[in-house]
Amino acid sequence: MKRHQTIQHLLFGVIILIALFFVFKIYFIFQSNLKVSTVSTFSTMNGNIFLNSFNRSANWLFDLFHFNHLRYQAKNLEEENVNLLFQLTQLKNLEEENLVLKEAFNLKEETGWHLLPAQVILIDPTGLSGQFWINQGQNSGLKSGMNVILENQVLVGILKECFKDYCRGESIFAPQTKIGVEDIESRVLAVLEKDNRGRYLLKLVPQEAKIEIGALLVTSHENTNFLPGLLVAKVKDIIPSSNVLKEYILEPLFTKNQLSSVFVITDFIPSNAAFY
Amino acid sequence: MLRFIKNSCLFFLICLFQIYFEGSFFIRPVADFLLIFLIFSFFDFPFFYLALLLLARGLVFDTLSGLTWGTNLFSLFFSFGIGFLLTLFLERDNFLSKIIIGESIINIYFLIIFISNLLISHSNLWFIILIDALINASLYLILQIFKHHAFQKKFS
Best of B13, B17, B24 to disrupt the A interface by mutation (most A CBs within 10 Å)? Predict the structure, then answer.
């Protein structure tokens, strides 16, 4: 009787394993079809009233839970306002600085990029890859490798995979991201890297380099995957170190809430297929 | 039949919540409510029904996460398979067994994600995956204790 039961259990196990084998085989065969249908299902839900009201509630709850942070921010803003009043006297210097920044930012007019607007419809729910989906695809002429930016020329990431109506992109926050960057003011070249805590670090900065807190960083000419001059991040803090090379902590120039609409630069496709 | 419909509706709602509100553009630890919901369902529903939910969850997360295709589905089936084997040795209805099995599922799931990230993606995300595992294991523990106390109050 016991032997009979064992045989039954074994048979059951073998059947389950065979079934799983076929499920996985079908799953891998129909990979792209499954991807497109999943994205289209969720993207159609994205704009409905039910989710919008949920979104508003989520924002309200976010404000409630971050009340102290908001109050702290308001206090900081007040202090900053006072500082700014003093800084008005230094308007002339600021004007000059502004001209330098404008030169760096107005790349669109200089290079004549073709921009295609798109909406970010879905983002990575696991928080591990920094992936996002946009509502434009091969039908709009998009190809993998194209750069994705915000309206103020802040670099968001790069397109990795394009389907008929959708594209999957990878943000600059993806693991193992390495971007060659340049400080706008001091023109110091360095490398942006992510560490295992998800922090964004500026590495390989020479000890004699003078990069100030708050300095803006743009993509440098060394990158093969990114157009030069795209804004990436600003310097948040310095990491105290006795090494020959300095390291800084960086802060991204965009927040999650800003990422509803993006632009794809359609006339730049990197020749190198291995991104990052 | 009604409980299956209720459960799948709840699964769908939590799935939407996870995708639209927990979705992360920046790499950061995330509380995986859907995984915890699946573990709770694991104790009350047959494995074949659960397999369908696992398939749906794997499909959605494999699509949206951008991790190597099949990573999520394989991790889910493997960890819940181990959970199923554990039920052969431990009681399904016992509070402590539920905690041991649930925690094992969470840890095995994140261990596979950790290994696949290391071997397939070659990415250095061990810290975030570790925090993910800790957050989800603690959340599951709290919810299980809460549920246990709620049931005890109800029947006392």
Answer: B24
- The span from the CA of B100 to the CA of B109, in Å, is 14
Say how many C-beta atoms besides its own lie within 10 A of residue A35's C-beta: 20
ipTM, 2 decimals? Answer: 0.77
Mutation site for B-interface testing, chosen from A36, A45, A124, A126 by largest number of B Cβ within 10 Å: A126
d(CA A163, CA A139): 8
Cβ atoms of B23 and A123 closer than 8 Å: yes
Give the position of tokens 């969470």.
Answer: B106
* Cβ-defined contact of A129 to B65 (cutoff 8 Å): yes
Nearest to B66 among A20, A46, A124 (CB): A124
At residue A146, what are phi and psi to the nearest 5 degrees?
A: -70, 145
- Chain A residues within an 8 Å CB radius of B32: 126
Residue among A209, A205, A206, A208 nearest A192 (CA): A205
Please tell me which residue of chain A has the smallest CA distance to B68. A129
The pLDDT tens digits for A129-159 are: 888 899 889 998 898 889 998 877 888 889 9
- List beta partners, residue A169: A132, A159
A61 touches chain B (CB under 8 A): no
Give residue-wise pLDDT tens across range B56-97. 999 999 998 878 888 999 999 999 999 988 988 888 788 889
pLDDT above 70: residue B120: yes
**Weakest-pLDDT range from A30-34, A50-54, A65-69, A204-208:** A50-54
| Amino acid A106: pLDDT | 62
DSSP secondary-structure letter at A240?
A: P
> What pLDDT is recorded for position B76?
93
What contacts A43, CB < 8 A, 6 or more positions away?
A121, A122, A133, A135, A166
B83/B103 Cα distance (integer angstroms): 9
- CA-CA distance, A236 to A248, in Å (whole number)? 7
